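Example 413, ligand pyridoxal-5'-phosphate.
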Amino acid sequence: MKRVPGCRIARMLRAQKRRHLSFHTPGHKRAGADITELSYSDALYAPCGVLAETERDIARILGADAAFLLTDGSTCGIYAVIFALRKGGVRRLAVPAHAHCSVFHACEALGVRPVCMRGERAAGIPLQPSEAEIARALSGADALLLTSPDYYGYFAPLAFARELCAAAGKPLAVDGAHGAHLHGTPQYAGNYAQLWVDGVHKSLPALTQGAVVSARGAWAERLREGVRYFRTTSPSYPILASVEYAVRYPRNEALERAAQSAKRALGALDNPDWSKLVVPFGAYADEAQRFLEAHGIYPEFNDGNYIMFYLSPVVRRRQLARLVRLAAKLPRAAVTGEDGASDGASDAGRVETVPLALAEGRVCARACGIFPPCVPVVLAGERVSAPQVRRLQRAVHTYGLCDGEMYVYAEDE
Ligand SMILES: Cc1ncc(COP(=O)(O)O)c(C=O)c1O
């Protein structure tokens, strides 16, 4: 593991006394990094020691007025952001229809109405909402939330969104679950938003669930309150230490350049985020995944068209070269374009569940999709098409279904 200077939490954990007899949680009773909030380790609920100093350092690094360490993933950050928005008077929030499910869950739980930007699809992937669509949605909402970058490595039009929100006097929030590696670059969400989430564990070398949520201006105090509601009172110190390590981790520009060459060599999507290598295999996607896994290469996800390989600054160039060597040999088919969904005739009434095989033609009542990436295949209110049913049937993991059945509006009333 590369040495990264200045990591306060790791230093505090290393300084632990050798004779440490644990009469505290966790129940495994081993000394080491996995401790609880002790006299010397500060307390995340009301930090005033090493954790407070680390959060201040991270805020400085990310350009925020306040930043909060999270050990419960970006999901916790999304809840805290939407809580802060609600507290600041937001009742209707413009969001991309393909936002992560946590956005819709938080809106539902907190009484915020999502104003969906449906967005276009092209070559089988959901596109970022256009400027016109954002402007239209914001005119009927009190705030805007964008996802940037998305799972396919595309950025939302953040500069435009910032101008638009500033002119309308409405806040901009960004779900940067896939963008923590961008701080210090012009594409970083924190250059534009009042509130934003960094999914540190996804694209930087942090342990799973490590994240940061940040804010500036008056939003910082509202966010602090939200974080208090949703953050665990038993944070994992290994995760906390890893988040600090990862935020301080330097860029790997040689790898960033190698990733762009790998994209060209593999005919991957020409997306602007170096860390997402998205290769079109079309109908051969499952076969390609099986072949690569048989050679010890595990991608992030296979959406039935594309296989997505997630990079971070710790990937070695020779590892990337091995991926390119193996993936370049594999057969490809054209990606299947659109999924044929159309707006449903009704979006209200009694909800029932039907087996996927019977869902074609029905109006979906609850968004459902493939997990990961946890973005919907079918949106609530859409009339379900055969290709959508097939994508869900082929998926290894799904969300939004109930024991494999889809929520649809009843037709009998
Ligand atoms: C765009 C986006 N936002 C938020 C999340 C939630 O992140 P986490 O799994 O860290 O809670 C995800 C997870 O995949 C995501 O893709």
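Summary: Residues 253-328 form a domain with the Aspartate Aminotransferase, domain 1 fold (CATH 3.90.1150.10).
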